Every structure is written in structure tokens, then in C-alpha cells.
Amino acid sequence: MKKIILSICVMAIAVISHGAIYKWVDEEGRVHYSDNPTATHESKEVDIEPAPPPEKIEEAREQAEKLKQRAYEKAVVDQLEKEKQLEEKEEQLAQEQQCLEARKQLAVLQELHLPAYRDDQGEFRAQWKYDTYQGKREYLDDGMRTSAIEQAREKVIANCMNPDDTKEQELARLNWLRSEHCAKHRVELEALERPSAKAVTQDLEKKRRLVKMYCED
Questions:
Q1: DSSP state, 37?
Q2: Strand partners, 92
Q3: For residue 13, what pLDDT is reported?
Q4: Where does residue 109 rank: exposed (0-12), middle (13-18), buried (19+ CB within 10 A)?
Q5: Max CA-CA distance within the chain?
Q6: What is the pLDDT of residue 17?
Q7: How close are the terminal C-alpha atoms of the chain, in Å?
Q8: How far apart are CA 202 and CA 14, in angstroms?
Q9: At 5, phi and psi to the nearest 5?
Q10: Nearest to 183 by CA among 214, 206, 152, 161
Q11: How many other CB atoms are there within 10 angstroms of residue 149's CB atom?
């Protein structure tokens, strides 16, 4: 590397001093540069382009700065667009989740053959054999239930793109039923798996199959 740098320096000095530089190779294959042709070896004049004028150098520098600025501005615009798309996606997912929750609450309230109540978090639940909630309950009478159904429908309209889609509403009902089965079987499996339960293997395996069936996607 040092030899290369030295050769370049020699070339530069020669160009400045005499305007020409010559290249030749010795018997060992080493390349030499000189400001004069050698008499012992075949020498070739090296074509060296003259340095560009200062105004060209300044023009090139300004062009490079413009390109750099454009690249920076494009990177900023691209990043802002990505952030905007991510924000819109998050808003969409949040609205879809609110839609699912609104449909679920409506489905619970529409199970008229099951008593309905409000839990300590303000969510509506149904009392039946798969209900695992253990907290405080506020049961709904017929008037309260009718009002709650209307409010739930308004939330479905506000948060769902197709609020009148009966298939989507039925799907929400089936997902709620499945989640209730899942919660019940999980609780029962945890009880069976306690050492004090002394559960037989057959019962454990059966309950594990039910948990897998209702809880896994």
C-alpha cells in the first residue's frame, strides 16, 4: 500500500513539474513510474487526464449536496408514510376489536333464556353452566336488558363496517360460546392437575383434549 501511495505521489509531482509520466516494468515484474523514459526498458507514457477546473469541482460538489439532500428528504417522506400506514393499521385493528367486543356483548344479551348480569368491570355476562366469573354481579331485569341490547346495537353500528351482517353476528355468538367453554374447561383442568385431586389419567387426558379443542385457534 505504501508503494502504491508513493507511486501516485511521484506521478502527481511529475505531472505538475513536466506534464508527462512514464511507466515501465523491470525483470522481476515490478512496475515503475518516472518523469523520463528509461533507456533500458520499454517505457510507455501514461495517459493522465488533467484535473478539472475549480468551477467544475464546485459544480460537482453542489450537485452531490443536492443529491444528498434529496435522498434525505425521500428517506424522511418514506418514514412518515410508513408511520402513517402503521398508525392507520393500528386504528383499523382497534376498531375491529371494538366491533368484535360490541358484537359479543350483543350476543350475550340476546341469549334471552339465560339470566344476564353486569360484572365489576361493566361487561355483560350470562349465568349458565359454563360461567366461571366469581366477582360481584348486577343482574338485569327485563327493562334493563332491553335498554342494554339497544345500547349494544348502537355500539355495533358505531364500530362495525357491516353492522347488519347476521353471519358476522352469529360468528361473534359462536366465538363467545367457545370462549366460555374454554374458560370452564381450563378451570376444571387446573383443578384436576393439583396433586391433592389425585385425578386418574383418563380424566386428565379427556379434559386436556377439551381444552385443546376449545382454546386453541
A1: -
A2: none
A3: 46
A4: buried
A5: 117
A6: 45
A7: 63
A8: 96
A9: -60, -45
A10: 214
A11: 19
Q: Cell 523491470 identifies what position?
A: 26
Grid cell locating 49? 487526464
Q: Nearest 10 degrees: CA dihedral of 198, 203, 207, 209?
A: 130
| Alpha helices (runs of H) in the chain, residue ranges in sequence order | 2-18, 54-110, 142-159, 166-192, 201-215
> CA 112 from chain center: how many Å?
42
**pLDDT, position 10:** 46
- Contact yes or no for 110/149 (Cβ under 8 A): yes
Q: Residue 116 and residue 149: Cα distance in Å, rounded?
A: 11
Read off the pLDDT of residues 111-144 as tens digits, 9 standing for 90 and up.
Answer: 999 999 999 999 999 999 999 999 999 999 999 9
Task: Give the model confidence (pLDDT) of 18-66 as tens digits.
Answer: 468 888 788 888 888 888 888 777 888 887 777 788 888 888 989 999 9
Angle at the Cα of 47 (from 45 to 50), degrees rounded to 5?
130
